[in-house]
Amino acid sequence: MPKIHIAWKNDEYDCDDCGPSFANGATVKIEDRGDIDMSPHAYCYDADSHSKLEVYLAILERIGHTPLDANEPQCLELIAGFGYEITEEDGD
Ligand SMILES: [Zn+2]
Description:
Number of strands: 4
Bound molecules: zinc ion
């Protein structure tokens, strides 16, 4: 069974003018399909932040199946349905 490993990440940026800002994201390794870099970058403007749903949809797109509409549990179900085993870790 091919494996997908998702490392969830957070980023934080503290600006003297704007105050703190936060971003979420992940790096993903998909066996036989390469990596997806959705690393977060917090900044005053143009921050890179990706929700869990965006990350799951990117994984589905990479393995060749883009659902028109799905929530997080449905995405996980679809990914598992295509025969992938998902492991997740919380990092920073
Ligand atoms: Zn700023």
